[in-house]
Amino acid sequence: MEYGLIGLFVSAFVSSTIAPGGSEAALIYLLVEGSFSSVNLLSAATLGNTLGALTTWYLGVLTARGYSVEKALHGRNERALSLVRVWGPVILVFSWLPVIGDALCFAAGWLRLPLTISVLMIALGKLARYAFIIYIFS
């Protein structure tokens, strides 16, 4: 792949924001291609995906400043807010899940959960998902 680790990082970042992406496919392609070590691939994907999730977390912080819960949250965001209120930062381990993962990060930012523990939980979930993909396709 022409862009290698940087391309994987960007793909993972975009995949973890509101925009859809295909970081798993990029990871598998680079893994099968064999040009990079599994550790480097795991690091690039995890870092990019975690930073993308933190972007969504920060959007939650910004949105909370200007809108009440009733105006801003509906559907899956409302459900995510409930989950984050009940489980706290631990629920962010599941931020890798399609559809609800972005909403969990947004809700965590909305509630202004502590940044450090939020980052750790998000990164742990992202790391586990990418490590599993690498394990399966190695």
Account of the protein in words:
By secondary structure, the protein is mainly α. The protein has one domain (4-137). Helices cover 74% and strands 0% of the residues. It has helices at residues 4-15, 23-33, 38-66, 69-72, 76-87, 100-110, 115-137. Helix 3 crosses helix 6 (100-110), helix 3 packs antiparallel against helix 7 (115-137) and helix 5 packs across helix 6 (100-110). The relative contact order is 0.16. The mean pLDDT is 89.
Topology:
Blueprint: H1 4-15, H2 23-33, H3 38-66, H4 69-72, H5 76-87, H6 100-110, H7 115-137
Helix pairs in contact: 1-2, 1-3, 2-3, 2-7, 3-6, 3-7, 5-6
Primary descriptors:
74% helix, 138 residues
Number of strands: 0
Listing every helix as H and every strand as E from the N terminus to the C terminus, the arrangement reads: HHHHHHH
Mean pLDDT: 89
Oligomer designation? single chain
Query: How many structural domains in the coordinates?
Result: 1
| Major β-sheet annotation | none
